[in-house]
Amino acid sequence: MKTDWNFLRLTGLLYAVACVVGYIFLSLFADHEAVRAAIVAAVISLVNILLGYLSIRLSFEKSNITFLKIVLGGIGARLFAMAALVLVMIRYLGFQALPLTLCLLFFYMINLGLEIYYLETKATVKKQS
Predict the structure, then answer these.
(1) Model's pTM, two decimal places?
(2) What is the pLDDT at residue 46?
(3) Is residue 129 part of a domain?
(4) Per-residue pLDDT at 48
(5) CB 41 within 8 A of CB 104
(6) Which of the chain's termini has less CB crowding within 10 Å, N or C?
(7) pLDDT of amino acid 125
(8) Which positions of the chain have pLDDT values less than 70?
(9) What is the pLDDT, as a whole number, of residue 61?
């Protein structure tokens, strides 16, 4: 299956805009540690959406049961991995909890929207062929 460069460009554009706007906002109203937490949250979320993209891409041509197992299981596994990573970052690495979790929540909502958009475009292409 070919790489969907349109989706990856859209993801990169949304992340770039969100990071620039977030950086400007946080640099005006928050301290350096909050900015650091937001940057790390953006990187974690970017890895999350890329893993979600890969799971959808690899499972789309499979049977419905296999597709659901891979996609839904992947969502659960990625969510638990992010939760464990957040706990380690807050407890042992000294990241501020509020900016980290709020930025992760913000990017997680973007990720869900992007994954739904990607699934919808893949389903539309599959119906047309």
Answers:
(1) 0.89
(2) 95
(3) no
(4) 95
(5) yes
(6) C
(7) 74
(8) 1, 129
(9) 83
- Determine, yes or no, domain membership for 23: yes
CB neighbourhood size of 20 (10 A): 10
Tokens at residue 6, please? 């349109």
Q: Which residue has 């650091």 as its token pair? A: 36
Could you give the number of structural domains in the chain?
1
CB-based contacts of 39: which residues, under 8 Å, 6+ apart?
A: 19, 23
Please report whether residue 127 resides in a domain. Answer: no
In this predicted structure, what is the pLDDT of residue 62? 87
Q: What is the pLDDT of residue 1?
A: 64
Using alpha carbons, select from 73, 77, 71 the residue that is nearest to residue 54.
Answer: 71
Q: Which H, E and C letters describe the chain, residue by residue?
A: CCCCHHHHHHHHHHHHHHHHHHHHHHHHHCCHHHHHHHHHHHHHHHHHHHHHHHHHHHHCCCCHHHHHHHHHHHHHHHHHHHHHHHHHHHHCCCCCHHHHHHHHHHHHHHHHHHHHHHHHHHHHHHHHC
Q: How far apart are the first and last CA of the chain?
A: 14
